[in-house]
């Protein structure tokens, strides 16, 4: 196995999940870097169909924590919610007269 593959596998296997956060706030630059890094992640057909919502209101954080059943969602210095946002891409395509890049509406049944 190549050294680069071994390195990647080591990183994946050493990953840990932290569910107890410090209530400290991040700087604007830190938030910008985190958001920028999230948009560097690979996406299907380069669609970049995600949006990031920063949630700072403690009441909204608590509501989200109750909805998802994860207490750590309410207890942190910064909560970033990553969502699939097809509406944004459609609006951009229309604004740039690139509607031919929009996908036809698809319905999935389970």
Q: Please tally the β strands and state the result.
A: 2
Number of helices: 4
Radius of gyration: 18 Å
Sheet bearing the most strands, described? 2 strands, antiparallel
SSE ordering: HHEHEH
Strand order of the largest sheet: 1-2
Distance between the termini: 40 Å
Overall geometry comes to: flat
Question: How much of the polypeptide forms β-strand, as a percent range?
Answer: 5-15%
> Which bin fits the share of residues in helices?
40-55%
Describe the structure in your own words:
The protein has 110 residues and is an alpha+beta fold. It contains four helices and two strands. Strands 1-2 form a two-stranded antiparallel sheet. The chain is flat and about 45 Å long. The N and C termini lie far apart (40 Å).
Output the keywords.
two-stranded antiparallel sheet, single chain, alpha+beta, 110 residues, disordered C terminus
Map the helices and strands.
Elements: H1 3-14, H2 28-38, E1 50-55, H3 58-68, E2 79-84, H4 86-95
Antiparallel strand pairs: 1-2
Summarize this entry quickly.
The protein has 110 residues and is α+β, with helices and mostly antiparallel strands. Helix content is 40%, strand content 11%.
């Amino acid at each position: 196995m190549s050294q680069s593959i071994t390195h990647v596998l080591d990183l994946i296997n050493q990953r840990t999940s932290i569910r107890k956060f410090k209530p400290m706030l991040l700087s604007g630059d830190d938030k910008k870097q985190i958001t920028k890094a999230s948009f560097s992640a690979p996406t299907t057909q380069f669609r970049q169909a995600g949006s990031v919502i920063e949630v700072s209101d403690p009441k909204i954080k608590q509501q989200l924590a109750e909805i998802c059943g994860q207490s750590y969602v309410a207890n942190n210095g910064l909560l970033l919610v990553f969502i699939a946002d097809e509406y944004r891409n459609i609006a951009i395509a229309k604004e740039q007269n690139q509607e031919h890049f929009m996908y036809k509406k698809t319905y999935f049944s389970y």
